[in-house]
Design goal:
By secondary structure, the chain is an alpha/beta fold. It has eight helices and six strands; from the N terminus they run βαβαααβααβαββα. Helix 1 packs across helix 8. The chain is globular, with a radius of gyration of 16 Å.
Length: 203
């Protein structure tokens, strides 16, 4: 799996999805992939960010994390996304970036890329599954290959059981309610494995 290039792409306002992305990055590297951990650009006004100390703190702590580019998408064989839900949908920050990919799509540069996604919300049924599925809709338009975790590992049964992509509930203090670390790591490893199979099969 050493020939697989994986882009771990996240948006995080207070840190949950950044942590999920870091677990994924670490595991993918251990699996032999070449990995880029990148964030989408923050679009929220400074006033909104300043009104939430946790948001402001996280912004400062991650200011040196590279911002994702279209070049990262072209470079990668596979993508692992991590995003919070916004009313059961993809955050505007991520959607804005996805909306810039038309040129790559038109030229067939996103077809056969392997993709998987993770999400979070502040309620157990706050839209995590729908957010992952909404993201996958764009990937289907790309012609990408979705590598959902399903129930391919026991960790799915101890982390909330989301077969579409690992998801977590976050309480009002910013703590993860479910123990999802192993599920995230399995999903990252599975994404790399599927990407290796696809890449080698196409060569």
């Amino acid at each position: 799996m050493s020939n697989v290039k994986l882009a771990v792409i996240y948006y995080s306002s207070t840190g949950t999805n950044y942590k999920l992305a870091q677990w994924a990055e670490e595991t993918a590297r251990e699996a032999g992939a070449e990995v880029k951990l990148v964030r989408v650009e923050e679009l929220a006004p400074k006033e909104a960010i300043a009104s939430n100390p946790a948001w402001e703190k996280h912004m400062e702590e991650t200011k040196d994390v590279p911002t994702v580019t279209l070049g990262d998408l072209e470079w990668a064989d596979a993508f692992l996304f991590s995003i919070p839900t916004r009313f059961g949908n993809v955050p505007a920050q991520m959607k804005q970036f996805l909306d810039t990919t038309g040129g790559l799509w038109f030229n067939g540069k996103l077809a056969n890329k392997v993709v998987s996604a993770m999400s979070s919300a502040s309620n157990a049924h706050g839209g995590q599954e729908q957010t992952v599925l909404a993201l996958y809709t764009t990937m289907m338009h790309w012609g990408a290959i979705i590598a959902a975790p399903g129930y391919t590992d026991q960790s799915a049964f101890t982390s909330g059981g989301n077969p579409y992509g690992t998801s977590v509930t976050v309480d009002q203090e910013g703590n993860m309610v479910e123990d999802v670390e192993e599920a995230v790591k399995h999903q990252a490893k599975r994404t790399v494995q599927v990407a290796a199979a696809v890449k080698n099969g196409l060569q």
